[in-house]
Amino acid sequence: QRQKSQEKEEGKHGPLGDNEMARVSTDKKQVKKTGLVVVKNMKIVGLHCSSEDLHAGKIALIKHGSRLKNCDLYFSRKPCSACLKMIVNGSAFERQVEALPEEMVSWLEPSGLQQVFQAAGVNRISYWPADPEISLLSGASGSEDAKLDAKAVERLKSNSRAHVCVLLQPLVCFMVQFVEETSHKCDFIQKISKTLPDANVDFYSECRQERVKEYEMLFLVSNEELHKQILMTIGLENLCENPYFSNLRQNMKDLILLLATVASSVPNFKHYGFYSGNTEQINEIHNQSLPQEVARHCMVQARLLAYRTEDHKTGVGAVIWAEGKSRNCDGTGAMYFIGCGYNAFPAGSEYADFPNMDDKQKDREIRKFRYIIHAEQNALTFRCQEIKPEEKSMIFVTKCPCDECVPLIKGAGIKQIYAGDVDVGKKKADISYMRFGELEGVSKFTWQLNPSGTCVLEQNEPESRESKYLQGLY
Ligand SMILES: Nc1ccn([C@H]2C[C@H](O)[C@@H](COP(=O)(O)OP(=O)(O)OP(=O)(O)O)O2)c(=O)n1
Q1: What are the backbone angles phi and psi of residue 396, rounded to the nearest 5°?
Q2: Catalytic status, residue 10
Q3: Which of 18, 97, 154, 386 is 20–30 Å from 303 (CA)?
């Protein structure tokens, strides 16, 4: 969600009629994009956002069709009735059929019912309870449309199998503290501290503060009364009374703080970014790195995933994206999501099924290394799209790819690697990071000070290129 790109939106989103659109377009800045995560069997199968022409829910339908069945959807705002009706399509019918006697169901099935069964019919829809389209509330007819839409949403909700809810819980104890410490210790921040020892020691806190402000603007309705009005309009009047309201706001603020903290571990600081040391390489168009802000955004996704690790010492996250030949209908522009993962023991294993000690343990048999599946390995294994050899695919890893993963990434046909390189060249007893440095045929962009200096930075990243992506991705 980016204010820059919102200016293009001109009220094309939201449950408003055409006349209302015209009114909203005079107040461009208030329309924000909607983000959506599609999850199937605990696996992320889609990361989308609204585009100029389409809401996120509609994009999910175009992209996944009947594969949305039984998926869980996570929206950054409550979906409007136009999206919800398509998303729940199928589940109401399914419920009616479930209620029929068994013989009748089996009698119905061969007669084309199977097709109906495969309609969208998602499982659960959860959303962030702060509709950013504050403009819905200003002006009489805007309010009227918003209320009608909210009623339609409630009706669709109560007649479908899908569970529509606000999935917001208090964070577990010490979570913020833990995330703060691990973000501070992360490779990207460490590298800045090492290479710029005289950088303001507090640069990390400053970057974090900036992110907190930015995210509060994006995800929180600063005015409490307005927030209450929005909750009323979207059918959450039960959250408007205290202590529920203050608890809700506190939980929202905590989560925003958490997100901002993770994001500040890949900071927008001086001329740091993901760069290739190979200048010949960067001059070739197809090897060109993404605009820095887009690369940082994808790396933050990988950093978030690292918190799901099953390795209690070192969490690693990886995300794979690809760039198609042209823009698609998704708000992510030409880029589309391929897969993601984090380091963990083989899927389905229970706690303590496998050894979990590190290199310092003398007994090699009880070390974790032969059992842990690396973040990149999980991202490749559980990907939801094929990696097309003719397209630019890229992996974002929070740590340097190890010797086990480097040939896997190359073999899978991934064209670009964005990673931290703090461990490059290190050889430990059970894991080593020697091959990444020598890797050829895959472009490597590691976290460093722009090697070409500031002037070249500006030439390499003309406004048009950066904004082309930003309009798409955020
Ligand atoms: N690109 C990478 C690199 C590592 N890992 C995972 C595998 C292990 O779970 C863990 C290993 O990390 P380290 O090499 O940092 O080893 P230690 O956890 O022992 O930490 P230390 O650096 O203190 O030795 O990270 C991963 O998934 N992807």
Answers
A1: -115, 115
A2: no
A3: 386
pLDDT of residue 385: 96
What gap in Å lies between CA 85 and CA 259, rounded to an integer?
Answer: 31
| Nearest CA owner, ligand 1 atom 25 | 314
Contact 348/376 with Cβ under 8 angstroms?
no
Asked if 146 and 236 touch (Cβ cutoff 8 Å), the reply is no
For a substitution probing ligand 1, which of 310, 343, 382, 446 has the most ligand atoms within 8 Å of its CB?
343
Ligand 1 center–CA 265 separation, angstroms: 18
Nearest CA to ligand 1 atom 12: 314
Alpha helices, H only, 187-308: 187-195, 203-219, 224-233, 244-263, 279-283, 292-306
Buried b (16+ CB within 10 A) or exposed e, 353-367: eebbebeeeeeeeeb
**Active site residue: 9, 180, 323, 376, which one?**
376
Note the pLDDT of residue 91.
Answer: 56
* C-alpha–C-alpha distance, residues 13 and 133, integer Å: 9
pLDDT at res. 235:
86
Q: Which amino acid is at 397?
A: V
Question: What ligand 1 atom has the least distance to the C-alpha of 359?
Answer: 19
- pTM of this prediction? 0.86
Determine whether the shortest distance from the Cβ of 313 to ligand 1 is under 6 A. yes
Q: CA of 412: how far to CAs of 224, 289, 439, in Å? A: 50, 19, 14
Instruction: Please give the distance of CA 442 from its chain centroid, rounded to a whole number.
Output: 25
Query: Is the CB of 375 within 6 Å of ligand 1?
Result: yes
In the predicted model, residues of the chain with pLDDT beneath 70 are 1-31, 90-120, 132-142, 198-201, 279-286, 454-474
The Cβ of residue 318 has, within 10 Å, a number of other Cβ atoms equal to 31
Q: How far does the centroid of ligand 1 lie from the alpha carbon of residue 280, in Å?
A: 31
Our answer on whether the CB atom of 311 is closer than 6 Å to any ligand 1 atom is yes
Q: Specify the pLDDT at position 325.
A: 92
